[in-house]
Amino acid sequence: MNLSKYGLSEKLLTVFDRLTDEQKIETSIQEYLVEDVLRIFTYYELEQYSYAKKLLLKKHRNNPYALFCYSRDIIVGRWPEAEPTIMTSPACAYLYSREVIKGRWPEAEPTIMNDDFWWNFYLSGVLGI
Predict the structure, then answer these.
(1) pTM (2 decimals)?
(2) Ordered mean pLDDT values, 10 residues apiece, the chain (129 residues)
(3) 32, 33, 34, 108: most buried by Cβ count inside 10 Å?
């Protein structure tokens, strides 16, 4: 098994292999950084569990970057429940529109517009102006 692809240790896998899917989800979210959670979820194919989404949304309800990363890297698409938090950050709103939505995100434009740096990126990188 090629663990280097997932960046997970044998020790972690030994512990996790004894857990139910729900326990894996809870343990990952409570004990690991979002980047590690992404790798664990991918390895165990837990990314589409609605239970995981609810726990992540609860834990990271004030962390737009974590929610953006989960949307981009695991869900690989829009996550409507997380969008209100993501759009509180001009940077995350821009990144979400460019990398997840892959186009204009009108609901987030007022937030992005309040930051000249990210608004310029949005104009060129998303709107093509």
Answers:
(1) 0.79
(2) 68 86 90 84 79 86 93 89 97 97 97 97 93
(3) 108
